[in-house]
UniProtKB/TrEMBL annotation:
Pfam family of the protein (one): HTH_18
PANTHER family on file: ARAC-FAMILY TRANSCRIPTIONAL REGULATOR (PTHR43280), HTH-TYPE TRANSCRIPTIONAL REGULATOR EXSA (PTHR43280:SF2)
Superkingdom of this protein's organism: Bacteria
Protein name (Swiss-Prot/TrEMBL): HTH araC/xylS-type domain-containing protein
GO molecular function ontology, one term from the record: DNA-binding transcription factor activity
Species: Pedobacter kyungheensis
Ranges for domain HTH araC/xylS-type: 187-285
This protein's UniProt keywords: DNA-binding, Transcription, Transcription regulation
Length: 288
């Protein structure tokens, strides 16, 4: 089922479920994109990555954007776009002190987000899924919808602070511009791992995507994220395997292959070590 909900303040929500789609456009508004099952292949300003149910993507207004869905099963997508006045007012109220807001001295500026993948979990996930559920049931109250969208932005800013601002502070470079550039390149590395997690990728390939040497990648990735690229990859594979065990009827051997493990025994050992339960026991517990 597809529907488009455009509010009087130019905020817009698009929900879709499709097996095949191709969109190419210049993004007109600040947009947050979600995928609830399957995957969506996206390209922002010639940079490709995949959105999965455990991530969401942010696209700035004016960016060249395209997306593609090619799946046997319907892929459920959900996109929230913000009107210029709504997001500029939110950014202004979030970024400045109460004194400056009351005085009205600060010029309102448009935000410039780091276009990337972010973790779709916690309050952000709860708020968006609740909004979609209400809209699916026919919610039309614009005031309530805008409250949901306000909390969507509020949760994103909190995630942005954790994933970008705090990570910048962890990098050991003195110059701010250097830290910003390194973090952008590390973000490319994370996107590449997230989009190709089920492939036999190498450190050299990840470093090439990030335009860093292998050793530079290893050092700065650990500084920013407190884990190595390999540990990040293993966490990703295990968490996505956990989701497949929870929501699909795939066999254990099928899931092992789908998430990129070559050996079922090593997968079972890692899964038990990480979650303190075997994959089969976890699957049975979720079914019960």
């Amino acid at each position: 089922m597809r529907y488009v909900k455009e509010l009087s303040n130019k905020n817009k929500i698009v929900s879709d479920s499709t097996c095949e789609a191709l969109y190419e456009q210049q993004n007109e508004a600040y947009t947050i994109k979600f995928v609830f099952n399957g995957e969506e292949t996206c390209e922002i300003n010639k940079r490709k990555f995949n959105i999965y149910p455990d991530t969401f993507a942010v696209v700035n207004a004016g960016s060249n954007f395209s997306s593609k869905i090619d799946s046997i099963n319907p892929v459920n997508t959900f996109a929230v776009s913000f009107g210029e006045s709504f997001i500029s007012d939110f950014h202004h109220s979030f970024s400045y002190s109460e004194e400056n807001l009351l005085d009205g001295k600060e010029a309102i500026k448009m935000p410039d987000f780091m276009e990337s993948l972010y973790p779709f979990a916690g309050d952000m996930r709860f708020n968006v899924l609740h909004l979609k559920n209400q809209l699916d049931k026919g919610l039309k109250d614009e005031m309530l919808i805008n409250e949901y969208l306000y909390h969507c932005l509020l949760n994103y800013y909190k995630i942005y602070d954790k994933e970008v601002v705090q990570k910048l502070d962890k990098l050991s470079f003195i110059k701010t511009k250097t830290r910003q550039e390194v973090l952008k390149r590390l973000t490319l590395a994370k996107e590449y791992i997230s989009s190709n997690y089920n492939q036999n990728i190498t450190l050299e390939q990840i470093a090439e995507q990030a335009c860093l040497s292998v050793n530079h990648l290893l050092r700065t990735f650990k500084e920013a994220y407190e884990i190595s690229p390999y540990q990040f990859l293993m966490q990703l594979r295990l968490n996505r395997a956990k989701k497949l065990l929870q929501t699909t009827s795939y066999s254990l051997n099928e899931i092992v292959g789908l998430v990129g493990f070559e050996c079922p025994s090593s997968f079972i050992r890692l899964f038990k070590h990480t979650f303190n339960i075997t994959p089969l026991k976890y699957k049975k517990s979720r079914l019960n």
